[in-house]
Amino acid sequence: MNVQQAPPPSRAEVADTRRLINDGIASSAELLDDEVILFEFLCECGASSCDEVVHLTVAQYHVRRVGAVVAHPTL
User: Fold this and answer.
1) With bands split at pLDDT 50, 70 and 90, how would you rate the model's confidence at 40?
2) Per-residue b or e along 42-65, where b marks 16 or more CB atoms closer than 10 Å to that residue's CB
3) Cα 7 to Cα 57: distance, rounded to the nearest angstrom
4) Is 11 exposed, middle or buried (0-12, 13-18, 19+ CB in 10 A)?
5) Stretch 29-46: mean pLDDT
6) How confident is the model at residue 10 (pLDDT cuts 50, 70, 90)?
């Protein structure tokens, strides 16, 4: 039996998946209605090996989300 493995996800697919997760984190965090708490968002650089997190308030997340990716500081 010849089992083919799926190709690894592309950088864009990784980034898109993390963006969806981050949007879910932000939506849940908004329920707390707190402008001071820092939440851990996943880095959206697209590297499947990246395990960096970005610490932001919900307001900071929304500001960075406009036209950009949420990524670790070296990007």
Assistant:
1) very high
2) bbbbbeeebebebebbbebbeebb
3) 35
4) middle
5) 90
6) very high
